[in-house]
Amino acid sequence: CGRFFEGTAEQMYAALVEKLGSLPKETKVYCGHEYSLQNLAYGAHVEPDNQDIQAKIKFAREKREQTPPVPTVPSTIQEEMHINPFMRVNEPSVQEHAGTTGKGGIETMRALRAEKDNFKPKK
Question: What pLDDT does 3 receive?
Answer without folding.
Answer: 57
